[in-house]
User: Fold Tight adherence protein C from Quisquiliibacterium transsilvanicum.
Amino acid sequence: MPPDMPLPQIAILAMVFLAASGLAVGLFLLLRRSETSRRLERVVTGATPTLVKEPSQSGWVESVVKLASPLARLSIPDEGWEQSEIRRRLMHAGLRSASAPVVFFGVKTFLGLALPLVGWFAITMAGKDMGASRLVILLTLLMGMGYYLPNLVLNRIVKLRQRELFEAFPDALDLLTICVEAGLGLDAALARVASEMQLKSEVLADELQLVVLEMRAGGGKERALRNLALRTGVEDIDTLVAMLIQSEKFGTSIGDALRIHSDMLRSKRQQRAEEAAAKVAVKLIFPLVLCIFPSILIVVAGPAVLRIGKLLSTFGQ
Assistant:
């Protein structure tokens, strides 16, 4: 790069580089193997998932944690962190490692400081004079956006994960009902269902495996089931846990309770699908009115409007 190149050209080159990089990353995400392909590969190869997964942490993750630690200290709460809402949201998102809070709060602090700097740099390069008050307001808004953007991403991850758990849970309950009625105990039935659900939902399988490990470690069925409801944050799983605990206490049939609950969850899943299908017509109104209808109006009425304009112009003469 020549030393006398002006700053606007440097900014344009940087934007072109970012656009090309984003296009390459988008093509990679689009063309990578889907989850269905990976499941089929596991079925064909006959790979059986293990109950205990070896923890693996690459070197770049450790480097990110080291870099994020000083920034995380600026925003992580000093007291009451274990009982905070963010801690529960991280747990519901499946981020249970010790480095997850450090990376999360480090990213919050970094974005809260980086976005105002980028905005100030962009305004300086553009040569606009916004005034001190407007500049302070804009930088404050950028700081707030950068600080709360990770919360929005975390909420999105939690929502997708809970949706997957809700959709896969009725099938797991059917398998659990068959195993219990076949004579297996609750812990053995959960272990069997966890191994079978790997092909359907790895998230639910991992949660059930953690329940089995807690039972085998001597934590007790009630505590393991309550921890399952706490980790997932799904209301239907919490209801099932309460039902299983009551069945264990009063000695009622677990199979009948599981069958009734699975039928209720399946009906609820079908109702959600019907509700989403009914909302499609309403959601299509906005793109139809804003995008398709103006184009159709121009194509259909455009020639007529031009002809009427020519006729009116001749009358005026």
